[in-house]
Amino acid sequence: MRLTVLGLNYKTAPVEVREKFSVGSHSIRRGLKNLDDYDGLNEAVVLSTCNRSEIYSVTANGFENSVRQFLNDLIGGGVEEVENFLYEYEGENCVRHLFKVASSLDSLVVGEGQILSQVKAAYSIAKSVDATGTILNTLFHKAITVGKTVRTETKIAYNSVSISSAAVDLSAEKLGGLDGKKVLIFGAGKMAFLTAQHLKDHGVKKIFVANHHLERAEEMAKKIGGEAVAWEDALFFADEVDIIITSTGAPHYVVKFWQTQQLMTRRAGRGIFFIDIAVPRDVDPEVAKIKGVTLYNIDDLETVVESHKQARLEEAKDAEKIIEEFVSATMTRFKYLKFQPLMADLSDRAEKIRRRELKRISGKISNFTDDDKKLVDQMTKMIVRKLLRLPMMKLNASAGTGEEKFYTEAVRALFRE
Question: Can you point out the beta strands (E) in 250-400?
């Protein structure tokens, strides 16, 4: 068996590549339901966020290409064209990578809390459609525990900047403060709401909220003291705003080139500031070519994040120590897991023989009471358990050593019927 992770993230691929790999939960669920269509691909979990797309998998040896085929089908083709952006980690390195991801050490924003929820959600989807088994169930349970432990035993999350706060900080930096500014936000999800809260804290005068579902825009606007606007009319409200921030889950551009041209004509030369924190992107990148428009996307926030990062480096070192302890314990656990099918088979064979002989002898003993049967049943169980104890101990002790192959083949040969 082979445990791997195949994917890309903000370190290896720009947003224009990452957005092609962004997969919604419905598509992930549908893809995992068809996992049996891929030879040798036994287990899989898909983690897709704005900053990463990864497939954690367990495959039979010799079927490594099944993972790439699954990824290719999941995103609708084109994996071979972006091969240089992909990374792949196997075994212990895969375990370590996931633990760092769940602990937010591999995030653009070190210490952010959203990634642990995203890891939980990805695992939940896979488990709900029976795409996980012993290996990935063990791995993801451990990863979630690691993430929680790092957050409770270190101060890595203290004073951490988030994507939403970084977007607001960038706006304030470029515009010389946000007091009295007006902002239009596309989207009413968690990220949009957090962004709006940060804007209010920075003294923004007015916030307009646009969402495909007007009731969601109204709900968010009520919470932040803003104003909900109809989706189709949103850019007309942009005539008077200073900043447009987009954070939707749309698979296509929400703000188009021609719409922005019309907007800038109405603004009569007054500049406007766009921050697109969505993946896939909400704003057509061609918009940046229009006079008076300043456009930033999620990758442009990295400089803001870096300025806040230094304070958490020491906490990250403590987190690394915790992660390594969990990696060691998990790899030890995996060494024993691979013997489970063999030991289960051994136990099953012995149990069948025990039951067969118990049934045979029961019919030959006169006055064999129910109490007698219980006593003999318990005694024979203990005999079987004690006979198998030493072979199983030897198997476990050989895990990861030069004797592993010898004991595995010996047990199979000795107990083969």
Answer: 272-276, 293-297
Distance separating alpha carbons of residues 95 and 188, to the nearest angstrom: 35
- Look at the alpha carbons of 193, 199, 205, 210 in this order and tell me if their dihedral is positive or negative: negative
Q: How far is residue 133's CA from residue 127's CA, in Å, rounded to a whole number?
A: 8
* Lookup: tokens for 231: 């989706």
Identify the three-state secondary structure at position 60.
Answer: coil
Residue pLDDT, tens place only, 349-363 = 787 788 888 888 877
Q: CA 413 to CA 314: how far, in whole Å?
A: 54
In one-letter notation, the amino acid at residue 292 is G
| Residue 188 contacts residue 220 (beta carbons within 8 Å) | yes
- Of residues 194, 186, 324, the one with CA closest to residue 249: 186
Phi/psi for 42 (5° steps) reads -90, -35
Is residue 128 a contact partner of residue 301, using CB atoms and an 8 Å limit?
no
- Catalytic residue numbers, as ranges: 50
- Report d(CA 141, CA 120) in Å as an integer: 9
Per the CB < 8 A criterion, the answer to whether 245 and 186 are in contact is yes
User: In this predicted model, what pLDDT tens digit does every residue of 283-311 receive, in sequence order?
Assistant: 999 999 999 999 999 988 877 776 666 66
Cis peptide before 251 (omega within 30 of 0): no
Name the β-bridge partners of 246. Answer: 186, 276
Whether the CB-CB separation of 368 and 312 falls below 8 Å is answered with no
